[in-house]
Write a structure and sequence with these properties.
Mean pLDDT: 87
CATH class of the largest domain: Mainly Alpha
CATH topology of the largest domain: Four Helix Bundle (Hemerythrin (Met), subunit A)
Low-confidence stretches: 1-9, 11-20
Order of helices and strands: HEHHEEHHHHHH
CATH superfamily of the largest domain: GntR ligand-binding domain-like
Structural class: mainly alpha
Distance between the termini: 48 Å
Number of strands: 3
CATH architecture of the largest domain: Up-down Bundle
Shape: globular
């Protein structure tokens, strides 16, 4: 039986327009993406009437969607005062970095043990796409940043895609996206260092060297967090 891969919420395409629930799911993905990409900034109030018009959805469906986002700590429900986008802080950034390392390293152990030829093919294809976008970014094409965001996750997802645990993949996806929000708010691509990390991780993954891969991931995530902290004007002191 072929192993299933799990798409992250940020990147998953909305369901086919089937009525009702499809529209709600599409709005859920769009609103979630707007938070992660910083289009809806941390601490901003989500006014139901304005959001209803912006996302073309009923107020009741919008409330349901916002409560779903509270489960991921992307939105705060303030009782009678409504909803706001969750704030960011240095403490949460470091907690997310630590949690991502734990989840991704565990997934690497499982995935490298079970990975087959199809798994290798997914890694090769994902890195080929990521490397092409990174070359353009290094050349100054900042318009490709959103494409890079998607390709970055697709590459990391491909590496752990043979872990055969939907729960683990969903948890990693959520943490990855919340960590990514900080990168988007910092408004900076880390440049050659992150490209080199990805190339090393690619080579190591094809050798199935789990220990070396986990070392790269830990260094990669911690360096990303430190890069964000160097551009911490948007972070609170908490």
């Amino acid at each position: 039986m072929a192993k299933k891969t799990v798409k992250p919420d940020l990147l998953a395409a909305p369901p086919e327009n089937e009525a009702g629930q499809s529209v709600s799911e599409s709005v859920f993905h769009k609103l979630r993406e707007d938070i992660i990409l910083g289009i809806l900034p941390p601490g901003s109030k989500i006014k139901l009437e304005q959001a209803r018009q912006r996302y073309s959805v009923s107020v009741s469906s919008l409330r349901e969607i916002l409560y779903r986002l509270t489960a991921e700590n992307l939105v705060i429900a303030e009782g009678q005062r409504g909803f706001e986008v969750s704030p960011v802080s240095r403490q949460e950034l470091m907690e997310l970095a630590d949690l991502r390392i734990v989840l991704e390293c565990h997934a690497i152990d499982l995935s490298f043990a079970a990975g087959d030829l199809e798994w290798e093919g997914r890694i090769v294809a994902a890195h080929h796409k990521l490397a092409a976008i990174e070359r353009r970014l290094l050349a100054g094409d900042t318009a490709r940043t959103i494409d890079w965001v998607r390709a970055d996750w697709e590459f990391h997802q491909a590496i752990v895609s043979a872990c055969n645990s939907a729960t683990l993949m969903q948890s990693l996806s959520s943490v990855f996206d919340r960590f990514l929000r900080y990168h988007m708010l910092a408004e900076s691509f880390r440049g050659r260092a992150v490209v080199d990390d990805h190339k090393m991780l690619f080579d190591i993954a094809l050798r199935k060297d789990a220990g070396a891969a986990k070392d790269i991931v830990e260094q990669h995530v911690k360096s990303g967090a430190q890069h964000i902290l160097q551009r911490q004007g948007f972070l609170s002191a908490k």
